[in-house]
């Protein structure tokens, strides 16, 4: 299993992580707003197909590191996005749309959980990415957020979110081919 995501096609990135279980605990960190805010974003999900999926980001809550990179200064006071739950099969599958904006098209995120040797294999698939730039950005973002989830589940202090984000985004810039 690679630490980095794999480009499945020109619009799809897949990342796998082997996480401390049990599966119900990992599932709770996907669907419970207060648990999710510690590694990703808070917000309510109506866990049925067609239900709303609200994500409210406050990156300053993810680690002790509080300095935002210039590129992300607009997010310093938080930002939000909305989507729709596309699928929900507790505790194995959660899929939702991610609303687009002027710079990015709408996309789809799927989390799949599978027990594996006393741990949990999380497979994250992000589909309908508009271009290489969005794939690089999504790769760096998910990589950093999943590191926060790993830290949270392992009960350790979170790594510096923005420092890690910059490191992995630079690596995705090298790994994702031009298309």
User: What is the string of SSEs from the N terminus onward?
Assistant: EEHHEEEEEHH
Low-confidence stretches: none
Helix content: 25-40%
Overall tally of structural domains: 1
- Approximate shape: globular
Distance between the termini: 25 Å
Structural class: alpha+beta
Our count of helices gives 4
What is the mean predicted local confidence, pLDDT? 93
Strand order in the sheet with the most strands: 1-2-7-6-5-4-3
Number of strands: 7
Taken as a percent bin, the fraction of beta residues is 25-35%
Radius of gyration: 15 Å
CATH homology superfamily name: START domain
CATH C-level name: Alpha Beta
Largest sheet: 7 strands, antiparallel
CATH topology: Alpha-D-Glucose-1,6-Bisphosphate, Chain A, domain 4
CATH architecture: 2-Layer Sandwich
Structure description:
- By secondary structure, the protein is an alpha+beta fold.
- It has a single domain (6-175), classed as 2-Layer Sandwich (Alpha-D-Glucose-1,6-Bisphosphate, Chain A, domain 4).
- Helix content is 28%, strand content 31%.
- It has four helices and seven strands.
- The chain has helices at residues 23-31, 33-36, 132-154, 161-175; strands at residues 6-9, 12-20, 52-57, 79-89, 93-98, 107-116, 119-127.
- A seven-stranded antiparallel sheet has the order 1-2-7-6-5-4-3, with helices on one face.
- α3 (132-154) packs across α4.
- The longest helix is centred in the C-terminal third of the chain and has 23 residues, at 132-154.
- The model has no long low-confidence stretch (mean pLDDT 93).
